[in-house]
Amino acid sequence: MSNREAKSPEKWLLAPYAMRTADSAGRIHEESPHPYRNAYQRDRDRIVHSSAFRRLAHKTQVFLGTMGDYHRSRLTHTLEVTSIARTVGRTLRLNEDLIEPLALMHDIGHPPFGHAGEDVLNECLAEHGGFDHNAQALRIVELLERRYPKFPGLNLTREVLSGQGCRANKKSQTPEATSKQPLLEVQVVDAADNVAYDAHDPDDAIEMGLISLAELEESHLWREATKKAKERFAALDAHDTRRAVVHGVIDLLVGDLISASAERIREHDPQSSGEVQSLSFPLVQGSREMLEQQAELEALLFEQVYRHPQVLAQRERAQQTLHSTFDAIVHGNRTLPQESQALVESEGIQRVAGDYLASLTDRSALELTTTNVPVATVGTGE
Ligand code: MG
Questions:
Q1: Element (H, E) at 64
Q2: Ligand 1 center to residue 61 CA distance, Å?
Q3: What would the pLDDT profile of 130-181 be if each residue is shown by its tens digit?
Q4: How many Å apart are CA 166 and CA 183, to the nearest integer?
Q5: Does 314 have pLDDT greater than 80?
Q6: Direct distance between the N- and C-terminal alpha carbons of the chain, in angstroms, rounded to an integer
Q7: What percentage of the chain reaches a pLDDT higher than 90?
């Protein structure tokens, strides 16, 4: 054990199955250690200071910014996921320093207009490798962000890169996705993502009048949380009931996630993060009953919220804006910003057009229809 490791509180704080910071495989471009931040804390700061992260503030989670100012943006969703993931990770004695950058970057590759935007870019790039926001997050942190003179991207640790890589592989169902499990810190972020949207999407949808409390009570999970809220608080109006139920849903999901995961960890008793990865199943997951209840709620939301005419209208908008701009760029009728042009030779015009459009906020993308002035994709001066 190195001197540095012996002094680290991780030795006492973390469980044997957690990923130790001292065991990190390091960065692609080697850098000297920082005097008071460990490698994963530096990763967190690099993500928070990236321009792609800041743009999440003006990107759609489910509902477009023009639909009101109550609902979650991609940034506030990310912060909710990070907060839930850290709570779960700390309780399971995992490495919170690693969980934080993983959670903060998990949606950094999302294009404007949420999944509608992603679908359009995937269609545009169908013959050029397609578009997936998880893979795009890796392109951003490995290539597109320009903050350091010595290398492209953010030069994050291999654990953060491979954690995000697991998300991309899972979606594309590559053999790698099924043969090896991600670190438990990665599994926690995945589960926290589901908990966050299962609680906040109904809350946002009620606020916008797309669904009612009574309609949500058709799902077991919502019904259970409502029952608990009413037992706890005798006389609540509809507004306060909703708040109490949203908290209740998070409590039920997080409580179940922690207890079911702790039980699975106890049963399989992994002695290292390597052992966790060699298993053929994830250890961090809710109980089977709760996963079924989440699936039931998500099916209800899919039918009544995600396919609501108001939400589908934004798909139409994304389709028109992104598709026509993509075509205009590829056919030479629209100019790319200078920093994007520099990548055309190595990456191809289609991929660079996809990168550029994916980087835009909802507002910048909507402005594309009125102007041909390229919008700068990389911030300066901070
Ligand atoms: Mg997410």
A1: none
A2: 8
A3: 999 999 999 999 999 998 888 999 999 999 999 999 988 776 655 555 568 9
A4: 10
A5: no
A6: 39
A7: 66
The alpha carbon of 280 and the centre of ligand 1 are apart by a number of angstroms equal to 24
The model's pTM is 0.91
Residues 121, 357: contact at Cβ < 8 Å?
Answer: yes
Judged by DSSP in three states, 157 sits in: strand
pLDDT in tens, 51-84: 999 999 999 888 777 777 788 889 999 999 999 9
- Nearest to residue 368, comparing CAs of 330, 320, 332, 331? 320
Residue 214 alpha carbon to ligand 1 centre in Å:
27
Q: How far apart (Å, rounded) are the C-alpha atoms in residues 85 and 30?
A: 29
Q: Cα separation of 350 and 327, whole Å?
A: 9
Provide long-range contacts, Cβ within 8 A and 24+ apart, for 340-347.
340/374, 340/377, 343/143
Q: What distance in Å separates the CA atoms of residue 49 and residue 108, rounded to the nearest whole number?
A: 12
Expressed in angstroms and rounded, the spacing between residue 106 Cα and the centre of ligand 1 is 6
> DSSP of 328-357, one letter per residue?
HHHTTSSPPPHHHHTTHHHH-HHHHHHHHH
